[in-house]
Amino acid sequence: MSLTFNGYERANGEVGIRNYVLVLSMVNCANTAAQQISWKTGAQVITHEAGCAEFSKNHARTRLGLLSAALNPNVYAVVLVGLGCEQTDHVSMMEEIRAAGKPAEYVGIQEERSLRKAVEKGVGLVEAFQREAAMQERKPFPVSRLVLGVQCGGSDWTTALSGNITIGAMTDLIVDAGGSVIISEVNGFPGSEHIIAERAVSPEVGLAVIQMCDELREEHFALHGQTIEEVNPTPGNKAGGISTLVEKSMGNVKKMGVTSKLQGLIYAGQHVLHPGLWMLDLRAPIIDGNVTSGFAMAGAHMNVFSTGRGSPLGNAVMPVLKLTGNPVSYAEMGEFLDFNAGVVLEGLPASEAGQALLEKVIAVASGELTRSEINGNFEFIIPRETNR
Amino acid sequence: MRALLTDPKDNVAIVVQAVRPGDVLEIGPGCLLKAEEEIPMGHKIALTDIPAGTMVMKFGVPIGRASADIARGTHAHTHNIEDITEELCRGYDAEYRRKAGAL
Hints:
Order of helices and strands of chain A: EEEHEHEHEHHEEHEHHHHEEHEEHEHH
Strand content of chain B: 25-35%
Strand order of the largest sheet of chain B: 1-2-5-8
CATH topology of chain B: Archaeosine Trna-guanine Transglycosylase, Chain: A, domain 4
Radius of gyration of chain A: 20 Å
CATH architecture of chain B: Roll
Distance between the termini of chain B: 48 Å
Number of domains of chain B: 1
CATH class of chain B: Mainly Beta
Helix content of chain B: 10-25%
Shape of chain A: globular
Order of helices and strands of chain B: EEEEEEEEEH
Number of strands of chain B: 9
Strand content of chain A: 15-25%
Structural class of chain B: alpha+beta
Structural class of chain A: alpha/beta
Largest sheet of chain A: 7 strands, parallel
Distance between the termini of chain A: 43 Å
Oligomer: heterodimer
Number of strands of chain A: 14
Low-confidence stretches of chain B: none
Number of helices of chain A: 14
Helix content of chain A: 40-55%
């Protein structure tokens, strides 16, 4: 098997695995226009609840979420849709998107004096970008150019035993090939932070992991008066056989593989500083979509997601390749799952399952559609953090 | 019928199918255990008697403290395991800081 994939070269030297045209709503008031442009063109769309009269910290995050999605390497071009009087400054955002070498245009509803006309204009802009995007051909690139997020959700007893160790084997293969993998789900770390810290490339990075876990436990308690383990594991996790947060977190860390060294921590909107295994310190509420969007904001090309109990999760700017370690879930929910790691429970070595998963990752990177894309699961949440 | 052991230090195993009282599970070659009660698929079965107040071990680490005596062959879950993540974290953090300081 060749360790190359066929991707799209960007003007700034980055590589994308999709050639999305993205419709970006600047403000809640423009969501309907943005959605209608997307329905008529099939373009990706991100809408949200904010964009006006926000306090500065909140607005900074709204802007970072939208801009980072636009700058994801899978995005070819962006159409920004605003009302006209909102807080979100489309001019500076468009400048930054263009500075990254991506085409970008704006539609304002007040300027067009009509929702219908705004939608028509947006459709015209998107279609022009789609024609340009269709002209671009894929070219081979080494796997070392890939950045993957790895995540789990809807966890059960198989998540640790088959799903996540298969991801872990794939993580080691990607990192060995010079590629990058990002872990996050930091609210699921308590109880295994020492294991993550031991994998750090230096004691400084290890201490940063320990410090992060200390802080987030304190932040949760200060904010909610509850410990994380009072809400995590979830009722579904417990029904699936997970009794405590430590037990869940010990399954969580299996996605790191066994040989890859943790290079450091990155924060919302930041890309990996060099190839290898990284941790995204994203202290947003424990909802799968927050972490997935956090990976998209970190410039990940794809999210590899294991789910014992099943989840249809997707993302607006990134394919989400979903696997399950639970053979029953795979048999019953194959409509939204891409890969069966349940064979590990029946005795297939995780190394072999990880190799097969790597091959699937390369196929998806080269254009094979994931179930998330076929089913139209294109969610995006702007992650709101407790600490920043 | 099978149960999986994740680490030699563990005192629980994971049943890979739903079990009923009297079912005999194979936990590795030649190692058999009789289930004393119903246990749902994917849940944990005690390999030894685990007295209240002692650690429940899985993945080779403590995952919680027995909040009641857990008899060999019975179901180990939230009804008899206390979540002591906070306490374990404090210990791990102190240990790592001590070691990193000494490096």
